[in-house]
Write a structure and sequence with these properties.
This protein is α/β, with parallel strands linked by helices. The protein folds into 3 domains: about 5-20 and about 235-365, Rossmann fold; about 25-230, Rossmann fold (3-Layer(aba) Sandwich), CATH 3.40.50; about 400-430, no CATH class. It is built from 17 helices and 14 strands. It has helices at about 10-20, 30-45, 45-55, 70-80, 80-100, 140-150, 170-180, 190-200, 215-225, 250-260, 275-290, 295-305, 315-325, 335-340, 355-360, 400-415, 420-425; strands at about 5, 105-110, 115-120, 125-130, 155-160, 185, 210, 230, 240-245, 265-270, 305-310, 330, 350, 390-395. A 6-stranded parallel β-sheet has the order 1-11-10-9-12-13, sandwiched between helices. Strands 6-5-4-7-8 form a 5-stranded parallel β-sheet, with helices on both faces. Helix 8 packs parallel to helix 9. The longest helix has 19 residues, at about 80-100. Keywords: Amino-acid biosynthesis, Histidine biosynthesis, Metal-binding, NAD, Oxidoreductase, Zinc. This is Histidinol dehydrogenase.
């Protein structure tokens, strides 16, 4: 990995390089996505089935697009029982963590007859997109479905692309069943996002779409925002390790590569105060790449978006980490909890040398759907909050309104909204 001295120029160049990975930088795909979405909106099932045949090679129709209980039972027979048990253990941790995020309606009443409050309501129907293809991500199934389930969403619809044989990856089906998906449909890509956003004869329209996908899925979610809500427009995976001379270079190198293996656009960054650590980490990454199955992808990722930045002070390192606002941040320093208090921008923060990032991906419980491309400056991880909405409650008695009605009228008149003022005035003008 390249080793650079951290200064304003290297930081600026790095930030500009990382932003190029954003889905917002792939405008040439937007027209293709728009055509697909418009076609699905106009021709509904017919378009959905045609695109599934074109892109996935599967013959899907109204008769077989819905995954049956028999298909789910077959998936359980194909998945290693040991893996099923691990999925169930992870599910308990994820559910327990998200149950602590629950919000409840509240009301505040006063003796004068004023009642103010907030009504919390789960979304009625949510669509969860799960990527297909050669890779299967049962962990993403759990992370997207469980917070919706905990929030109390009435119906959770899952969409995932089938293989050419029309079947869905068995581990994906098992994870969906365990997490509580209500219906699973065989469709992927931008066409699946369009089906969820607009509805078709087979696919019900949802209120919100969540879940990761390729550039077409990301841009489709961006395009349908407003027709439905979405979680975010996610970019490639990224990790930043903030370390000092006390860190184990072998551990740090392994953790950096855990994200670099996702794809060639993934970003892996070490910010450290130790040149010795920087050099050892670089050596270890070279050694690990030779041993790992996705070494070629890892190497391309590091060549494009891998960096080791050596800072003069820990405060400089923290400042750089906050500017980068990484999806995953590991703090491996002499006092990681103290350093953590200075971190303003990160999707998930892992503290200490035994809190490796994959712990969060699979098992600990916090959600692994995280803000990318610097959006941790203003976005949060997927949570129960993403599957609820809030309504304000206002109730005034006659006596409570009478005390303040002239204030409201004057305020409205100051804005030249006389109908607003009149709406209050008629209740006290004695003309009833």
């Amino acid at each position: 990995m390249r080793i650079e001295k951290l200064d304003q120029n290297t930081k600026t160049d790095l930030l500009e390089s990382l932003l190029k990975r954003s889905p917002n930088s792939y405008g040439e795909y937007e027209e293709r996505v728009r055509v697909i979405l418009n076609d699905v909106k106009a021709r509904r099932d017919a378009a959905l089935f045609e695109y599934t045949k074109k892109f996935d090679g599967a013959d899907i129709s109204a008769e077989n697009i819905l995954v049956t209980e028999e298909e789910i039972e077959e998936a359980y027979r194909e998945v290693d029982p040991g893996l099923v048990e691990i999925i169930r253990k992870a599910l308990v941790n994820i559910r327990s963590y998200h149950e602590k995020q629950m919000q409840y309606s509240w009301f505040d009443s006063k003796p004068d007859g004023t009642i103010l409050g907030q009504k919390v309501t789960p979304l009625q129907r949510v669509g969860v997109y799960v990527p297909g293809g050669k890779a299967a991500y049962p962990s993403s199934v759990l992370m997207n479905i469980l917070p919706a389930k905990v929030a109390g969403v009435d119906e959770i619809i899952m969409m995932t692309p089938p293989g050419k044989d029309g079947r869905v990856t068995p581990t994906t089906l098992v994870a969906a069943k365990e997490a509580g998906a209500d219906r699973i449909f065989k469709a992927g890509g931008a066409q699946a996002i369009g089906a969820l956003a607009y509805g078709t004869e087979s696919i019900p329209k949802v209120d919100k779409i969540v879940g990761p996908g390729n550039i077409y899925v990301a841009l489709a979610k961006k395009a349908v925002y407003g027709h439905v809500s979405i979680d975010s427009v996610a970019g490639p995976s990224e990790i930043l390790v903030l370390a000092d001379e006390t860190a184990n270079p072998r551990y740090v190198a392994a953790d950096l590569l855990s994200q670099a293996e996702h794809d060639e656009l993934a970003s892996a960054i070490l910010v450290t105060t130790s040149m010795e650590l920087a050099e050892k980490v670089s050596d270890w990454t070279d050694q690990f790449i030779k041993e790992l199955s996705r070494g070629e992808i890892i190497q391309k990722s590091l060549d494009n978006y891998g960096h080791i930045l050596v800072a003069d002070t820990l405060d400089d390192a923290v400042d750089a980490a906050n500017e980068i606002a990484s999806e995953h941040m590991e703090i491996v320093t002499a006092n990681p909890f103290e350093v953590m208090t200075k971190i303003r921008n990160a999707g998930a923060i892992f503290l200490g040398e035994y809190s490796s990032e994959p712990l969060g991906d699979y098992f600990a419980g916090p959600n692994h759907v995280l803000p990318t491309n610097g959006t941790a400056k203003f976005f949060s991880p997927l949570s129960v909050d993403d599957f609820i909405k809030k309504s304000s409650i206002i109730s005034y008695s006659k006596g409570a309104l009478e005390k303040i009605h002239t204030d409201i009228e004057r305020f409205a008149e100051a804005e030249h909204l006389t109908a607003h003022a009149n709406s209050v005035r008629v209740r006290f003008d004695g003309k009833d």
